[in-house]
Amino acid sequence: MTLQGLQGSEAQAPRRSGSARRISVLGATGSIGTSTLDLIGRDAEGFEVVALTAQSRPEELARLAIKHRARVAVIGDEAHFEALKAALSGTGVEAAAGAQALCDVAREDTDCVMAAIVGAAGLRPTFAAIAQGRRIALANKECLVSAGDVFTAEIARQGAELVPVDSEHSAAFQLLAGAEPGSIEKIVLTASGGPFRLWDQAALEAAKPEQALKHPNWSMGDKITIDSATLMNKGLELIEAFHLFPVSAEQIDIVVHPQSIVHCLVMYKDGSVLAQMAPPDMRTPIAVALAWPARMAAPTERLDLVRLGTLTFEAPDEARFPALRLAREALRCGGTAPAVLNGANEAAVAAYLGRRIGFCDIARTVERTLEGAGKEGALRTPACLEDVLAADALARRLAQAHIKGYQ
Ligand code: NDP
Ligand code: MG
Q1: pLDDT tens, 378-387?
Q2: What pLDDT, on the 0 to 100 scale, is given for residue 44?
Q3: Which residues pair with 268 in a beta bridge?
Q4: Ligand 1, closest atom to CA 233?
Q5: Centre of ligand 1 from the C-alpha of residue 274, in Å
Q6: I need a surface site. Which of 5, 150, 185, 224 has the fewest CB within 10 A?
């Protein structure tokens, strides 16, 4: 997230001692990836970096791999392999490229894999990482949304440990530690409301990508920033929470909290409500996922309640932000509906960022794609990852047809 100090030193990390925790970062050049490496760089004795991956930025990947003394750097897009090799030449960092190499390094033995690739593209590498049966620090929410039960079953089968990185889910994870499932009444996820919280329908129809990319509180990758503006991000998080915690869909509420200080509340059956608070900086939930159940230092701004003064909460408006309703419906429908919702949303967000459709066409595309997939009988329960990927591919095909219609 905010990366004060990240650019500080370009010096290489010192060699680690034998007790250092081995970590790989999938999506190392992204917002979550660089925040993770910022924390690791501040505790260089405590971590040993095994693998770093990226997709389209070989020079940046090489810079990070050299700085953090990674053993191997992998670029997903093979077209960038020569550039990566050249940038790593003589450094001792191994270079690899391609989709298979991403999965191969994800499988390498570590203590923790930070899964921070954006979108359904993270599915295969994250599934590969589960195979080592260690900790998955999960930022890639699209994995859990699309693959749901298939993903959690694979975690259980391989004896791996899933620790959420998404701030609301990290908060719930902390608030629920040691809770009896039957004692939980509700989980309340907060949403900032995004940059268009107070915009009327006409203004939303005309909203430009550069306006949608200006999130009031968080600095994040482009895709999740657009999802925050449509509130699809909260819809995805609702599905994510359903798979992470022992509650029904009806026990998960969404409340808009524009200050983004309270990230989640858990209401217990005795009337007690626990809330987790922190300034909006992803380095806090990342630190939780890396160190849990211990705590590690994170150089984030400290919460000053007196300076903040007021925290406010309001109901989300599902008429202006239909993505929330669509996510709830997809969760209720089950089967591959969440995978279709996610695939269609990814296609629509890319089209919006490419200025091929309007802001409100994102949710329209998702809704029509879900209807189309339903008519084709394609929302059956997925048995394996391949079924999820097939639903994702179908959703993208159907969505593209709707996107063409808006142009
Ligand atoms: P970014 O867009 O900033 O970074 C994405 C990373 O994934 C980059 O390293 C990118 O490589 C890599 N990548 C992109 N496409 C592919 C692909 N097809 N195959 C393999 N790697 C790819 O995303 P964020 O860091 O913002 O988000 C990462 C995940 O974390 C998302 O799922 C998001 O929803 C989730 N998340 C993010 C939060 C945040 O604060 N940013 C908060 C909560 C959750 P390259 O740079 O080379 O293109
Ligand atoms: Mg979140």
Answers
A1: 999 999 999 9
A2: 86
A3: 184
A4: 34
A5: 30
A6: 5
